[in-house]
Amino acid sequence: MNAAEQARGLEVTAKIAALVNLFKAQFPDARADLKPWANDPDTRELIDPDSIDVGFHLPGWSPRFQARSILLQIRFFEDAATQSRRAIGVEAVGFTHQGEQWRLSTVESWQFLGDRLPAEEIREKLKDFCRQMFDLFNKN
Q1: pTM of the entire structure?
Q2: How far is Cα 89 from Cα 65, in angstroms, rounded to an integer?
Q3: Which of the four, 5, 13, 78, 86, has the lowest number of CB atoms within 10 Å?
Q4: For residue 2, pLDDT beyond 50
């Protein structure tokens, strides 16, 4: 679900702002998009209500990123018994005008998949960002 729609309450809003700042600390040229999903019935049908989705757009196509935009989808698990919400995974997908170029999932092996992978330096920075994101959303 679009981050802008998930920003209900001070705590979640502050964490989304911190998330954007963490990403921009790694990649200062990126521009955040808190509403990466279109607001139409077909898209709404696919949206995961237990996620926070943020897009980041680069100033142009980047050979180091092999992308023009990156979509982050942070998935959560809400424990009804303890009324706590924990980040359980991140999907990061790099896009160009030709579509998806690569994908990183933090579920299992943290591997990048795709035909055009970002440079090793960018891959490590993205993994570092994901670790920081888990720390941000899962601290007590």
Answers
A1: 0.84
A2: 21
A3: 78
A4: no
